[in-house]
């Protein structure tokens, strides 16, 4: 086995351990401050070296899911410590059937705070280039028609392009951080909400308001778009319900 192949195998095993343990933590299998399996146990379970397990722990620690302390072991951290916009944390949250409705609505609430304001800022601050990016994404959405799979990518690009058009460094940084969140959300919404074509006129209203530099109309149009999204999600996903603690997997 070459050095490159060995490194890839190690990375793959590290990712697998991190994914299983991370998914268990976000699903509520391990409560805050509860001990998670240690290096020796996971090493035996996966047939991996303790070095590989330590690397998996480092990944989860960087995502805010665990904390390791001398003499007290490695413990799950509370939800408020999790890096919710991390791509893996998002995927694990949405993979958990009980957590999905609540987290989808959490994303909706954040979008309702950020995106109408971003649309208004984009109306005031867009350049020819940033407007063109929004227009291109919208044109691709129109071409996608009723195909939810084809619609998802330009929909993500449309909302990201609006954030970029704000010419606000903090807002643009937020857009970079939330790319994964928007990607997961759009795919969940598309999966449940049926044909996406009815939302095209609402996206067009946002674009038109930005194009004519009408900040108030852009804000209102984005609110209308997100309101429709919320109704679709509620109708197809249901309202969030209190989650119960998941059963721990057998060893």
Automatic annotation (TrEMBL):
It comes from the Bacteria. The keyword Zinc-finger does not apply. Keywords: DNA-binding, Transcription, Transcription regulation. GO terms for molecular function: DNA binding; DNA-binding transcription factor activity. InterPro entries: GntR_C, TF_FadR/GntR_C, Tscrpt_reg_HTH_GntR, WH-like_DNA-bd_sf, WH_DNA-bd_sf. The keyword Chloroplast does not apply. Residues 11-79 form the HTH gntR-type domain. Pfam families: FCD, GntR. This is GntR family transcriptional regulator.
